[in-house]
Specification:
The complex is a heterodimer of chains A (477) and B (268).
Chain A: H1 11-19, H2 22-31, E1 34-36, H3 45-66, H4 74-85, H5 89-116, H6 125-147, H7 152-165, H8 172-180, H9 187-219, E2 242-244, H10 245-270, H11 303-311, H12 315-330, H13 332-335, H14 348-369, H15 374-392, H16 403-427, H17 432-438, H18 440-455
Helix pairs in contact in A: 3-5, 3-9, 4-5, 5-6, 5-10, 6-7, 6-9, 7-8, 11-12, 11-14, 11-15, 12-15, 14-15, 15-18, 16-18
Chain B: H1 12-26, H2 48-60, E1 68-72, H3 76-80, H4 84-90, E2 101-102, H5 108-115, H6 122-128, H7 131-139, E3 141-143, E4 151-153, H8 166-169, E5 172-181, E6 184-194, H9 202-220, H10 224-258
Antiparallel strand pairs in B: 1-2, 3-4, 5-6
Helix pairs in contact in B: 2-9, 6-9, 7-9
Classes of the chains: A mainly alpha (477), B alpha+beta (268).
The complex binds protoporphyrin IX containing FE.
Residues 43, 45-47, 49-50, 53, 107, 110-111, 114, 117, 119-120, 124, 127-128, 131-132, 134-135, 138, 209, 212, 216, 221-222 of chain A line the site of protoporphyrin IX containing FE.
C-alpha cells in the first residue's frame, strides 16, 4: 500500500493535492488507518470530547464578542447583554455552560476507559502523559472561565484558589499576587483570566489535542481486549483484526454524536443549571467583595480534588495531596507493570481495585459537596487515603505474590495509613475518636485487598491465557 | 459521642454503632434551622392581566428602591401582551428612556443611609429564589419591635427591608414555635396572623402578591417559552438522527461481522 502519492494529479483538487498531502493524509490517517474492530461504548468519548472542544470554541467566540472583562460590567454583560440583549445569546451561553460540564464528564470517562483497558501501557505511555497534560489544561481553562461572569461563586472560588497558592513556601505569595495581578481578586485578575481563558488555554488545548492524536496514530489504538492488533497481520501487512477508520468508525461516531446531542440539548433546553450542579445557584448573585458566602465550593468536576484540599489539615500538604494525585496518574505506567493490558483478563481483586479508584473518587466528590464540617474533613482525609492507595497497591498485582509478601504488603500499607493519621493529627487535633471512627475506611479497603488475597489466592489470579484474536462483546459492538 | 473531649471508648460494639452513625451523619452537616413552610403558588405566564397587575406594582412600588437591571422597559410589552403605546400609557417608564434598563431613581447612597444595605436587584433575586419563596416572603412580614424597621420576615430572618405593604395588608404578628436557628434552639416564626386591617382584604392582597411574583418570575425566566417551543424540535431532530445513524452504522458493519477477512480489501 503506497499511501504517500496524491490520488489525482489533474484538476483543481489535483493541483492542491500535489502541493499539500491532502489525499495521502486522508488515506494514511483515516480511510486506510486500521482501528481495532471491537471498540465498545467506552471508545465514543474521545471523539465526543473533540466535538465538545470545537463546540466550546465556537460558542465561546460569540460569548467573547459580547462579554465585558470589567468588574463593573461583567455580570450584567453576561446576564443581560448576552442572555437577553443578543439574539440566541441565552442558547449560546447555556451551550457553553453545559458544554463545560459535558467536557469533564467525557474526559473522566475517557480516562477511566484508558485505566480499564491498560491504554497507558507500552507503547502508549506518552499518549497517556499528553492526556494528563490535556486534563490539566482543561482544568485551568475551566477555573479561569468560572471567574468571568463575576458572580459570587466566581469571585470567591477564585479567591479561595489563589489563596491556597499562598501556602506554597517562599514563592507562594509572589505567585498568588502574580496570578491575580493584585493583592486581591480584582480588575487585573479578571482581565488576565479573560485573556488566558479565550486565548492562551484554548491554543494550548488545541496544540495538546493535536499532539495527542499524532501520538495515537503513531502507536495505534488499544481496545477492550488489550491485544495488539499490529502483532497479527495478513500477507499485505494489514492487521487481521483491524478495520479502516473510515467509513466504519466515522459512521459509528456519528451515531455517538447524535445520541450525545440528545442528552446535551435536553440539559441545554430544560436544565441549563443542572440542579445547581452545572451552574451554581449562588452565581446568580453578582460578586460582593464584602460578603463571603458561608459555603464556597467549586463546580462538580473539581469536587473530589476539593475534598483532598479540605481533608488534609494543612494548606501546603493539601496542595501536595491534590498535586500528587496527578503525579500518581502520570506514574500509572510505572506502577502497573503487569503485562496484561485489559481489565477483562486481570484478576478479580484487580477489577475490584479499579472499581475502587472510581468509587473513592466519586465518594470524595460527594464529601466535598457537603459543608466543611469536621466530619466531612476527616472523611475527606480517609477517602483520599483510599484513592491514593488504589494506585499505590498496583505494583502488588504485577505478579503472583507469596504469602509472606501479601502479609508484608498488608502490614506496611496499614502502618503507612496509621503513620499518616498520626502525622495529620499532630498538625490538627481532629479529635482522636473522630479519626479512629473513620479510620475503618482505608483499613477496610486494605483488608479487602490484601486480606482476601491471603484468604482466597484465586482472586488474585489473572487469566491464564489471552485470546489470540480480538473477541466481540460490549455494547455497540 | 463524636465530640473532641468525650471519654475514651471501651466498648467495641458501641464504637461500631458510632462508626455507622458517623458515616451516615457525615454528609449531612449540622447547621440545621427550622424552615417555615413556603406558600404554594402556580405561575401562569399566559395570564397577562395578572402579569400586568404585577408589573404595575413592581414598576411603581418596588422600583422606588430596587432595580431590575436585567430588564429593559422595552422588553415588557411582549411579556405583558401590550403594544408599546398601551404599555407607555398604562405602566410607563418612570421617566426613563424606553430602552433603558429598569433602575431605581433612589440613589444607592441614600438607600444605604435609610436601610443600611442597598436593596438587591430584583432580577438577581427572582433568578435565585423560587416563586413559592418570593410569594411567602412578600406576604410574611410581621411586627418585631426589636428590629430598626419594626418588622421581621418568616423566610428572611432579620430582613432589612421595611414593611412596604403595611397600608395594603395591615400589620401581622408572628406564629412562633420552639425550633432551631443555625443549629441552636431558638424561637422561630413559622407563619403570620393578621394584627390590623389594611386597605385590602387578605384575599385581595394575596392575589396582588401572586401577581407581583408572576411578573418577577416572567422577567427572570425570559426564554422559558422559547425553550419549551424549541426544545422538542431539537431533541426530536437528534433522536431521529440517532435512529438513522444507528441504521447506517448497522448497514456498514454488517460486512465487518459477516465476511471476517475479506472486507478490508474494499477501497484498496
Ligand atoms: C480534550 C480532551 C481530549 C480529547 C479531545 C481526546 C481525544 C482522543 C481521541 C479522539 C482518541 C481516540 C479515540 C478513543 O480512543 O476514544 C483518544 C485516545 C486516547 N486518549 Fe484522549 N483525548 C482527550 C483527553 C485525554 C485525557 C485527559 C487522557 C488521559 C489522561 C487521554 C488519554 C487517551 C488514551 C490513553 C487514548 C488511547 C486509548 C486507547 O487506544 O485505548 N485523553 N483521545
Amino acid at each position: 500500500m503506497n499511501n504517500s502519492k496524491p490520488s489525482k494529479t489533474s484538476g483543481v483538487f489535483g493541483w492542491f493535492d500535489q502541493r499539500l498531502p491532502i489525499s495521502a493524509t486522508w488515506r494514511s490517517q483515516v480511510s486506510r488507518y486500521p482501528a481495532p474492530k471491537n471498540f465498545n461504548l467506552w471508545y465514543f468519548f474521545g471523539s465526543l470530547a473533540m466535538l465538545v472542544l470545537v463546540m466550546q470554541l465556537a460558542t465561546g467566540l460569540f460569548l467573547a464578542i459580547h462579554y465585558q472583562p470589567n468588574p463593573h460590567l461583567a455580570y450584567w454583560s453576561v446576564l443581560r447583554g448576552i442572555q437577553r440583549d443578543s439574539r440566541w445569546g441565552w442558547l449560546i451561553r447555556d451551550m457553553h455552560v453545559v458544554g463545560a460540564s459535558a467536557f469533564f464528564l467525557l474526559v473522566y470517562l475517557h480516562m477511566y476507559r484508558a485505566v480499564m483497558y491498560g491504554s497507558y501501557k507500552k507503547p502508549r505511555e506518552l499518549l497517556w502523559l499528553v492526556g494528563i497534560f490535556i486534563y490539566l489544561a482543561l482544568a485551568a481553562e475551566a477555573f479561569l472561565g468560572y471567574l468571568l461572569p463575576w458572580g459570587q461563586m466566581s469571585y470567591w472560588g477564585s479567591a479561595v484558589v489563589t489563596n491556597f497558592v499562598t501556602a506554597l513556601p517562599v514563592i507562594g505569595k509572589p505567585i498568588a499576587t502574580w496570578m491575580r495581578g493584585s493583592f486581591v481578586v480584582d480588575l487585573p485578575t479578571l482581565n488576565r483570566f479573560f485573556v488566558f481563558h479565550v486565548f492562551l488555554m484554548p491554543m494550548l488545548l488545541l496544540a495538546l489535542v493535536l499532539v495527542h492524536l499524532i501520538a495515537l496514530h503513531q502507536v495505534g489504538s488499544n481496545n477492550p481486549d488489550g491485544i495488539e492488533i499490529h502483532e497479527n497481520v495478513n500477507e499485505s501487512g494489514w492487521p487481521r483484526d483491524g478495520i479502516p477508520f473510515h467509513p466504519y468508525y466515522t459512521v459509528k461516531d456519528l451515531f455517538g454524536v447524535s445520541v450525545f446531542f440528545v442528552v446535551f440539548f435536553w440539559f441545554v433546553f430544560y436544565k441549563p443549571a443542572g440542579w445547581g450542579l452545572l451552574l451554581d445557584k449562588l452565581n446568580y448573585t453578582p460578586a460582593n467583595i464584602l460578603h463571603t458566602p458561608a459555603d464556597i465550593h467549586p463546580l462538580w468536576f473539581f469536587l473530589p480534588f476539593y475534598a483532598m484540599l479540605r481533608g488534609v489539615p494543612d494548606k501546603l500538604y493539601g496542595i501536595m495531596a491534590f498535586g500528587g494525585s496527578f503525579v500518581l496518574l502520570a506514574f500509572l505506567p510505572l506502577l502497573d507493570r503487569n503485562p496484561i493490558r485489559s481489565i477483562r483478563y486481570r484478576s478479580k481483586l484487580y477489577k475490584f481495585n479499579v472499581l475502587m479508584m472510581a468509587a473513592s473518587f466519586l465518594w470524595l466528590g460527594w464529601i466535598a459537596h457537603g459543608f466543611a464540617t469536621e466530619h466531612n474533613m476527616v472523611y475527606g482525609l480517609h477517602v483520599t487515603e483510599v484513592f491514593y492507595a488504589t494506585f499505590l497497591v498496583l505494583p502488588f498485582f504485577n505478579r503472583q505474590r507469596s504469602v509472606r509478601a501479601k502479609v508484608l504488603w498488608l502490614v506496611l500499607a496499614e502502618a503507612a495509613v496509621w503513620l499518616i493519621d498520626v502525622w495529620m493529627y499532630s498538625i490538627h487535633a481532629h479529635g482522636w475518636d473522630l479519626m479512629l471512627l473513620t479510620d475503618w475506611i482505608p483499613t477496610l479497603y486494605l483488608l479487602v485487598v490484601f486480606g482476601s488475597a491471603l484468604a482466597f489466592p484465586a482472586l488474585t489470579r489473572d487469566a491464564a491465557k489471552l485470546p489470540e484474536r480480538l473477541t466481540a462483546g460490549g455494547i455497540f459492538h | 459521642m463524636t465530640q473532641k473531649n468525650s471519654p475514651r471508648r471501651h466498648r467495641p460494639v458501641l464504637a461500631l454503632a458510632a462508626v455507622l452513625l458517623a458515616a451516615c451523619g457525615a454528609a449531612w452537616g449540622s447547621v440545621a434551622s427550622t424552615v417555615p413552610p413556603l406558600r404554594p403558588i402556580t405561575v401562569n405566564l399566559q395570564d397577562k392581566a395578572a402579569l400586568r397587575n404585577g408589573a404595575l406594582y413592581t414598576v411603581h412600588m418596588c422600583v422606588a428602591c430596587h432595580s431590575l437591571q436585567g430588564v429593559r422597559y422595552s422588553s415588557l410589552p411582549k411579556v405583558l401582551g401590550l403594544s408599546r403605546a398601551q404599555f407607555l400609557a398604562t405602566i410607563g417608564t418612570n421617566g426613563h428612556h424606553y430602552h433603558d434598563t429598569i433602575t431605581s431613581n433612589m440613589p444607592a447612597a441614600m438607600m444605604e443611609a435609610y436601610v443600611k444595605i442597598a436593596p438587591p436587584d430584583l432580577t438577581v433575586i427572582a433568578q435565585r429564589r423560587s416563586a413559592a419563596w418570593l410569594y411567602t416572603y412578600l406576604t410574611s412580614f410581621y411586627v418585631d419591635p426589636s428590629r430598626p424597621t419594626g418588622v421581621n420576615n418568616t423566610v428572611r430572618y432579620n430582613v432589612a427591608m421595611p414593611d412596604v405593604f403595611a397600608s395594603m395588608q395591615g400589620l401581622q404578628k408572628p406564629v412562633v414555635v420552639q425550633g432551631l436557628r443555625f443549629g441552636s434552639p431558638a424561637k422561630v416564626a413559622i407563619g403570620v396572623e393578621p394584627l390590623t386591617q389594611g386597605s385590602m382584604t387578605k384575599a385581595q392582597f394575596d392575589q396582588t402578591a401572586r401577581d407581583i411574583v408572576a411578573f418577577l418570575y416572567a422577567v427572570a425566566h425570559p426564554h422559558q417559552q422559547e425553550r419549551a417551543r424549541l426544545g422538542p424540535w431539537i431533541l426530536g431532530l437528534f433522536l431521529a438522527l440517532s435512529v438513522l445513524t444507528y441504521l447506517l452504522y448497522k448497514l456498514y458493519w454488517r460486512r465487518v461481522i459477516t465476511s471476517e477477512e475479506r472486507w478490508w480489501r474494499v477501497g484498496r
